[in-house]
Amino acid sequence: MSKRIACACEDVTEGDLAAAAALGFGDVESVKRYTGFGTGFCQGKSCLAGVADWLGVHGLPREAAAPFTPRPPLAPVALRELAALDPDSLGPPGPGVPEEDAILGFPHRRPEGSLPERCAVAIVGGGIMGLALAYDLCRRGMTDVVVLEAGYLCAGASGRNGGGVRTQWNTETNIRLARRSLALCRGFARELGVNVWLRQGGYLFLAQSDAVARRLEASTERQRRLGLATTMLTAGGAREVVPQLDDRRVVAAAFNPDDGVVFPWPFLWGYAAGAARRGAHIETFTRVTGVEISGGRLRAVVTDRGRLACDVLVNAAGAWSPRVAALAGVKLPNLPYRHEILVTEPLESFLGPLVSVLDDGIYFSQSMRGEIVGGMGDRAEPPGFEVGSTLRFLARFSRAIVDCLPVLGGVKVLRQWAGCYDVTPDNSPILGETPGVTGFLQMSGFVGHGFMMAPAVAELMADWMAGRGRDEILDRFNLGRFAQGRLEREDFIIG
Ligand SMILES: Cc1cc2nc3c(=O)[nH]c(=O)nc-3n(C[C@H](O)[C@H](O)[C@H](O)COP(=O)(O)OP(=O)(O)OC[C@H]3O[C@@H](n4cnc5c(N)ncnc54)[C@H](O)[C@@H]3O)c2cc1C
Q: Kind and range of the H or E element at 291?
């Protein structure tokens, strides 16, 4: 195996590239994610051309060796400098620095071979939902499954999120689901052989107003009744958890030591490989373009690689789910909203919990690699599939994080990116049957918490599809609720 360095910042060798290619990571975006090349301090400037060239020479199709999407800022910039910018002078959220593939363009790779002619279950979307479901179906003996993914596996929100896994929720249902997911996260490496870098440093929610403090108190009480270890803290108590915190604006806090953070990408690789080992087909760079229905029953799904007859089609296309549903003449109420996020240079480990200020929607945590990873919602953001990166976000986030932890002022931002929240009218998902189309199932609308809910929700979906019982979430969160005017509100949303 060649030890020649391909990426000096992240210590990636040509041997590592070869190992990634041998595992089937056959396009530059996937190789970047699997090996980490191009994610260090030089932001890929010194290694990208060489790696793209290496990939081209070593047998990957020409399109697969295209450069990966460049990430702003152009050079590492200190949070303090960005915090000095006035976000209001930067105007409302604009398109920002565009992404080459606008998420669903994907020039990177044409798949080889043909699709199977038919299958029992086809799943649109190779994000965490689709892949976890494929794996859980296979575990229950339903292995005739095909996952159809328009891009590479981490292309959607599942490859773009903050990796937060928390049990601090408002509704009993979400507390139950998150608890189960956390248990599954703990066992993921053992079951699927992939390290997901789970770190249970807790979640510290900060309130900067009495109204938010009261909301925290109410949900903490509910969580404690259900057996969680959440406690309310004073500003001083919050400082004991994070000594670097500037607590002058903190009115109250809620802390749960069991919550944590994961590295999202290995979840997708683990579920995909686990499903494929059991016989499922994971078809990347395969876009669904049509749905065939006759006699009120779903018959087939049409893709840019041909037609696939199926008994059941699951719509797990995240923010794009309404578009997929529309192919079947079905209207979903979900709306996509851009959410931006960034990562800094790595620091010595110092920050235990993920910290979130509910008043302004900022959250940040320290990854196992030492970077600060954080995002912030923007109430001025209009709905849409925009995923460009903005200076407005850098300014707002930097100001908010430096206000919280002034010690971070000199730390440099390395990369920013964005993904879409998949937002429903009540912040709860849409699961199960579609009225009027037998065989068409929904699994979308997970707003900003689908990553942490997926392991538990996929188990329950798979149980039901395999005839092993129907959990109440299939009724509570069905599509029919909107027509009935029955909303299942969850308001403990970050951002
Ligand atoms: C910035 C940000 C931070 C977040 N932080 C967290 C967090 O800390 N914790 C948490 O739990 N959640 C978080 N989330 C939310 C979480 O990422 C999502 O809820 C979750 O990943 C949704 O998974 P999914 O599989 O439903 O969708 P996705 O991951 O978006 O997957 C859908 C897939 O469908 C594919 N697709 C679309 N149309 C088609 C088509 N026509 N044919 C074939 N394929 C198609 C897309 O390419 C995509 O890969 C965050 C989201 C964002 C954007």
A: strand 288-294
* Distance from Cα 252 to the centre of ligand 1, integer Å: 32
pLDDT for residue 99: 66
Query: Are β-strands 362-366 and 372-376 bridged in parallel, bridged antiparallel, or unpaired?
Result: antiparallel
Q: Find the 156 Cα to ligand 1 centroid distance in Å.
A: 5
Q: Which amino acid is at 49?
A: A
Rounded-to-integer distance, Cα 344 and Cα 457, Å: 32
Q: Which letter does DSSP use for residue 114 in this model?
A: -
Rg (CA), the chain: 22
Atom nearest to 417 CA in ligand 1: 1
Give the residue whose CA is nearest to atom 35 of ligand 1. 125
Given this model, what pLDDT does residue 102 score?
46
In angstroms, rounded to a whole number, what is the distance separating the alpha carbons of residues 166 and 186?
A: 13
Between helix 28-35 and helix 264-277 the angle, nearest 10°, is 110
Place of tokens 């937002």: 423
Number of H helices, E strands in the chain: 14, 21
SS3 152: coil
Q: Of 328, 358, 346, which Cα lies nearest the Cα of 448?
A: 358
Q: Kindly list the protein residues whose Cβ atom lies closer than 6 A to any atom of ligand 1.
A: 104, 124-130, 148-151, 155-158, 160-164, 287-288, 316-320, 324, 339, 341, 375, 419-421, 444, 446, 448-452
Give me the residues paired with residue 97 across strands.
389
Q: What tokens appear for 134 in the block?
A: 């494929």
Longest dimension (CA), the chain: 64
Q: Which residues contact 114 (CB under 8 A, 6 or more apart)?
A: 305, 306
**What are the structural domain ranges in the chain?**
5-68
Residue nearest to atom 26 of ligand 1 (CA): 318
Strands 252-256 and 203-207: antiparallel
Amino acid at 395: A
Q: What's 349-382 look like in SS3?
A: CCCCCEEEECCCCEEEEECCCCCEEEEECCCCCC
* Amino acid (one-letter) located at 93: P
| H or E stretch at 78 | strand 77-78
Interatomic CA distance for residues 478 and 45, integer angstroms? 47
> Which helix or strand (DSSP H or E) is residue 82 part of?
helix 79-83
Among 149, 282, 335, which is best to mutate for testing ligand 1, by the most ligand atoms less than 8 A from CB? Answer: 149
**Cα torsion angle, 430, 94, 493, 370, sign:** positive
- Please list the ranges in the chain whose pLDDT falls under 50: 102-103
What is the amino acid identity at position 267? F
Q: How far is CA 434 from the centre of its chain?
A: 25
Three-class SS state of 411: coil
